[in-house]
């Protein structure tokens, strides 16, 4: 099973984005995941990791929930 972590900048007000990504990942993969975690951060961080591997970093990628879900997909069930 898989752990998805969404680290977001609290002072920047990115909680809504983090919740949107978490909700989309849960809706898409639900029971195939062990956990979807929101991790607080600062300094403008918005990073999505799957089992510790970065699949999205706002410094390198454009924010698009559907793209983030597609980046998570290859990792879901890979360990099964």
TrEMBL record:
Highest rank taxon of the organism: Archaea
InterPro entries, per the entry: Selenoprotein_Rdx-typ, Thioredoxin-like_sf
Pfam families: Rdx (PF10262)
Keywords: Redox-active center
Transmembrane portions of the chain: none
Identification of the protein by name: Selenoprotein W-related protein
């Amino acid at each position: 099973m898989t752990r998805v972590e969404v680290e977001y900048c609290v002072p920047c007000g990115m909680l809504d984005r983090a919740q949107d990504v978490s909700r989309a990942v849960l809706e898409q993969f639900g029971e195939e995941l062990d956990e979807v975690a929101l991790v607080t951060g600062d300094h403008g961080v918005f990073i999505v990791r799957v089992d510790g591997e970065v699949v999205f970093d706002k410094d390198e990628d454009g924010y698009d929930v559907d793209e983030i879900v597609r980046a998570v997909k290859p990792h879901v069930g890979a360990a099964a």
